[in-house]
């Protein structure tokens, strides 16, 4: 065998080793993905929402590369309907990879199709996510394409996977009543269970307004944490845990597309809006209790400008909670 043939044979062996190493690497990656995903799923405890069945959700197909996902937070136990404790609409733009979040106040006085005037959070107990979708469309002209119902029992586990070192917040006063723990004033680094207590506390002078503000703050900081390397490594386990605690009609392909976009969009901040916006509501007592009686035109306009910004505005629609018309 001459030198040329020896060199060719060595090149073939080298290419063979590289190809084999590549296959082993791919195999190891697939094994890691499924192992971590299953670990996240099996470590979850029973969820009250995961296997719950609802009426057919009739959201339209997304248009113009924008996806609206209705996020419902539920604290109901198994075999209970319960009212939605939290209602948000997450808007994801597939082209810009921007994420926007609209929080709908639970006491907003709305027309629920088939049930008349009620608090917004009653729609879920009457007809599940489909009736919430119809209510959002009828009252705010807001189209929702998908839904995701999150069991609050899974929130701490998801938080600890996204932010293993915790989330820093500045607590203005002692938070204790109704959350099963005591959170002291000052800058604190909160982990899963503590952060859940922080975002659910509502017994302060701002009532539910403060809770919504804290929810938006926590999600914004979690979104920033999600772009870190540890989140990419933990992504399979995170998806497995979320799968155990989230009831959704989002398909896996769309979930992965959104997750990939959020992870890659490292510089993008989470934009938020609260509905009702400032100077668009009054407090009223009606037959269903204390409600926020809103100006629909102002809020529909605010939502449209938030999702489709055309002009700059100096009006802050989220921070001031004065109940002015």
Keywords:
325 residues; Aminopeptidase; globular; disordered C terminus; six-stranded mixed sheet; two-stranded antiparallel ribbon; alpha+beta; single chain; 21% strand
Please provide a brief summary of the model.
The protein is of the alpha+beta class.
Write the layout of secondary structure elements.
Blueprint lengths: L2 H40 L23 E9 L11 E8 L5 E6 L4 E4 L3 E4 L2 H19 L5 E6 L3 H8 L4 E5 L14 E5 L1 H9 L6 H19 L3 H17 E3 L3 H13 L6 E5 L5 E6 L2 E6 L1 H12 L18
Parallel strand pairs: 1-6, 3-10
Antiparallel strand pairs: 1-2, 2-3, 4-5, 6-9, 7-8, 11-12
- Strands in their spatial order, largest beta sheet: 9-6-1-2-3-10
First-residue to last-residue Cα separation: 94 Å
Provide the residue-averaged pLDDT. Answer: 80
The CATH topology annotation reads as Aminopeptidase
Largest sheet, in brief, is: 6 strands, mixed
- Secondary-structure arrangement, i.e. CATH architecture: 3-Layer(aba) Sandwich
The amount of helix comes to 40-55%
* Low-confidence spans: 311-325
Q: What portion of residues belong to β-strands?
A: 15-25%
């Amino acid at each position: 065998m001459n030198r040329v043939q020896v060199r060719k044979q060595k090149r073939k062996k080298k290419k063979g080793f590289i190809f084999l190493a590549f296959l082993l690497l791919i195999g190891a990656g697939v094994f890691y993905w499924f192992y971590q995903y299953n670990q996240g799923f099996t470590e979850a405890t029973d969820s009250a929402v995961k296997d719950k069945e609802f009426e057919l959700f009739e959201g339209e197909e997304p248009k113009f590369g924008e996806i609206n996902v209705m996020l419902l937070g539920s604290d109901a136990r198994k075999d209970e309907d319960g009212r939605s404790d939290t209602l948000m609409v997450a808007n994801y733009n597939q082209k810009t990879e921007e994420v926007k979040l609209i929080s709908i106040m639970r006491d907003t006085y709305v027309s629920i199709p088939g049930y008349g005037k009620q608090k917004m959070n009653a729609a879920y107990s009457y007809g599940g996510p489909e009736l919430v979708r119809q209510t959002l469309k009828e009252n705010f002209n807001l189209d929702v394409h998908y839904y995701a119902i999150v069991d609050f029992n899974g929130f701490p586990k998801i938080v600890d996977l996204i932010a293993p070192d915790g989330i820093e917040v500045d607590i203005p006063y002692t938070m204790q009543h109704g959350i099963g723990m005591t959170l002291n004033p000052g800058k604190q680094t909160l982990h899963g269970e503590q952060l859940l207590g922080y975002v659910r506390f509502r017994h302060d002078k701002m009532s539910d307004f403060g809770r919504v503000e804290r929810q938006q703050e926590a999600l914004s900081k979690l979104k920033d944490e999600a772009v870190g390397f540890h989140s990419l490594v933990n992504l399979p386990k995170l998806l497995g845990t979320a799968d155990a605690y989230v009831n959704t009609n989002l398909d896996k392909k769309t979930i992965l597309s959104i997750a990939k976009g959020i992870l890659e969009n490292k510089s993008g901040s989470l934009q938020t809006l609260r509905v009702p916006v400032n100077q668009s509501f009054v407090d009223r007592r009606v037959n269903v209790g204390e409600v926020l009686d809103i100006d629909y035109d102002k809020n529909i306009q605010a939502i449209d400008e938030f999702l489709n910004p055309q002009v700059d505005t100096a009006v802050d629609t989220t921070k001031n909670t004065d109940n002015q018309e």
